[in-house]
Amino acid sequence: MSDAFVSLQSLTLAYGDTIAVPDLSLDVRQGELISLLGPSGCGKSTTMRAIAGLLAPRAGRIGIAGRDVTRVPANRRNVGLVFQSYALFPHLTAFENVAFGLRLKRMRGAEIERRTRDGLATVGLDHLARRKPAEMSGGQQQRLALARSLVMEPDVLLLDEPLSNLDARLRLEMRNELQRVQRATGVTMVFVTHDQAEALALSDRIVLMRDGRIEQLDTPEGLYARPRTRFAADFVGFENIFDVVPEGLKGPEGTVPHRVPHRVPGDVAALAWRPGGVRVGSGELRGRVAGVAFAGTTREYVLDSALGRIRADAPAGAERLAIGDQVAFDLPPETACPLGTA
Amino acid sequence: MPTLASRVVLALVLTFLIGPFVIIILAGLSAGNSLAFPPDGLSLKWYLKVFTVESFQASFALSMFLAVFGTLAALALGVPAAYALNRYDLPGAETVRIIVAAPIIVPGIIVGLALLRYLVVPTGVGVTLALFLAHTALVLPYAVRVVSSSLHNLRADMEEAAVLLGCTRLQAFFKVVLPNIRAGVLAAFILGFVTSFNQVPVSLFLSGPGVRTLPIDMLAYMEITYDPSVAALSALLAFLSVAIVFAAEKFLGFSRYV
C-alpha cells in the first residue's frame, strides 16, 4: 500500500445484473505507465471507468494519491481521460477545448491563456489554436484531447485505446509522444488496450485481464517471454499451444511423443511455441504445408500435422516450400514456454 | 434523362401543390369587392386593407403569442424529455414516447373537443390559457422528435469528457450538449411555430368570445364578409411561412431535421 498511488481494493463492478469485474485489486505506482490489456469484454474499460468515477463500484475501494475517492464524483477526482473517440467539443476551437477545464476552475484570464498556450505547445498544436476539431486530422485531434486532459494537471491520466484510431505511421509518432509527455510531466498513466503490441511498447507494467480478473501482472518483457497461462500465452503470440500428457503432446488432432524439457517443473499443463520458435526443415515431426505467406524477413507457414495446425516462421532465405509439400519440423524444448494449469 | 411521362407527372404534382397558392395570391390582388377568380381587375387595396382590420390585428397578436410562447414552453418541456429518453434507460420509455407523439396521431377535432369538455368546462380556465396549454401540447411531439434526432447524433462521451474536466452534469448539458444541438432546437422551434400558427381544429373548439387565433378569425370573417382581403391575408401568411422555412434551410439545413 505504501507505494500505491492508485489503489484498487477488492473492486466489484457491475452493469445492472451483469458483474463485469468481480473482485479486482491493483496498485499503480506514481509516475508509472501501466496498461490494462485484454480482449473486449475483459473488464478493462469498466475498470477504467471506475477509476475515472464514471461508474460507481458495487463494492471495494478506490484510492488516488492517498485519498479515498470511492465516493468522490467524477468532476472532483482530478483524473484525466483521453477517450477513444477523443470526445472533443466540436463547437469550440482547439484553444477553447483546452481552456474548457481551466475556465471552470475560475482561474484568471491571463493564467488560462498561458496554461492553454503551454498545453497546446506541449503537443505541438500551438499553430492550430483557432481551428475547430473537425478541421484537424485524426492525429491532431488525439493530441488535442491529450492536451485538454494534461492542462488540468491530473493525478492520473487514463487513455482509452489511445492508438487504435491512428494509422501505422501516426501510431509510432503518438507512442513516442505519449512517452515524451509522460517523462516531461511525470503523470501516472493508465492505458486501456486490446492490442498487445501497443501494451508491450508503451508500458512499465501490463495488467493482462480476462473475464474481469487479472490473468497476469507483469513487465512487458516478463509477459512476452514467460506468459503463465494458456490465455496469456495465446494473447502474446504463442500460437502453438499443446497440452502435456504422459505420452507426449496432445493437440486437437492427436497426440505425438515428445521429449518434455528437463527444466520444466512437474505441474506443467501445456507447452507453447511462437511461430518463430518452431524449427522448419528438420526434426521428427512431419507436416504438410497448408498455407504460406511472405513477411519480409520470414516466411510464415501453416502446417497440418498429427497434432493439428502448426504456425511456423522460417527465415526468408531458407528453402521455399509450396502448399502441399511434406516437411519435417520440430518443436524444440529450448524454445518452449511452459504453462501452468490455470 | 426523365421521360415525358415523368415530366407530366411532375408538372401535375407541382400544379396541384402550388396552384392554389397562385390562385389565392391573384384573388387577393382583385380590384373588385368579392372573392373571385380570375380577379376582377388588379389592385393592392385588399393587401393594404388587411392591416387595418382590427380583429385581424388582435388575432394575429394572439396567434403570434401562442406560436412563440407555446413553442418555447414545448421546448422547455421537450428538450429535457428528449434528453432523458435518449440518455437514460428509463422504465416505460417506449410508453412515454408514444404518449408524447399522441397529439400528432389523434385528430385535432378530437383533441379540441376533449380539451373543451374535460379542461375548459370543468375547470373554467381562461380561453387564452386553454389555447396556450393546447398549443404547447400540440407542439411538444415535434420538439421531442426533432431534438431527439439531434441528440441521437451527439456522442454521450462528450458529456463525460466535460464532467471529467470539472463540470457538473447540468453544466455539461448547458456547455456541451445544448451548443451542439442548437440547430436541432432551432429547427424544432420553427416547425413548432409553423404548426401552432396554422393550427385550426383545436383552436376552433377553444376560441371564445373576442379571443380567436388568426386562422379562426379568418374563418369567422369569411362567414360575414366575402371580400378578397382573406385571400390577401392568406397570401401574406404563405409568404411569411415560405420565408421562415427558406431562411431555416439556408442557415440551418432545416430539411436534415424534419
Automatic annotation (TrEMBL), chain A:
GO terms for cellular component: ATP-binding cassette (ABC) transporter complex. PANTHER family: SPERMIDINE/PUTRESCINE IMPORT ATP-BINDING PROTEIN POTA, SPERMIDINE_PUTRESCINE IMPORT ATP-BINDING PROTEIN POTA. It comes from Halovulum marinum. GO terms for biological process: quaternary ammonium group transport. The keyword ATP-binding applies. GO terms for molecular function: ATP binding; ATP hydrolysis activity; transmembrane transporter activity. This is ATP-binding cassette domain-containing protein. Keywords: ATP-binding, Nucleotide-binding, Transport. InterPro entries: AAA+_ATPase, ABC_SmlMolc_Importer, ABC_transporter-like_ATP-bd, ABC_transporter-like_CS, P-loop_NTPase, Transp-assoc_OB_typ2. Residues 6-236 form the ABC transporter domain. Gene3D superfamilies: P-loop containing nucleotide triphosphate hydrolases. It holds the Pfam family ABC_tran.
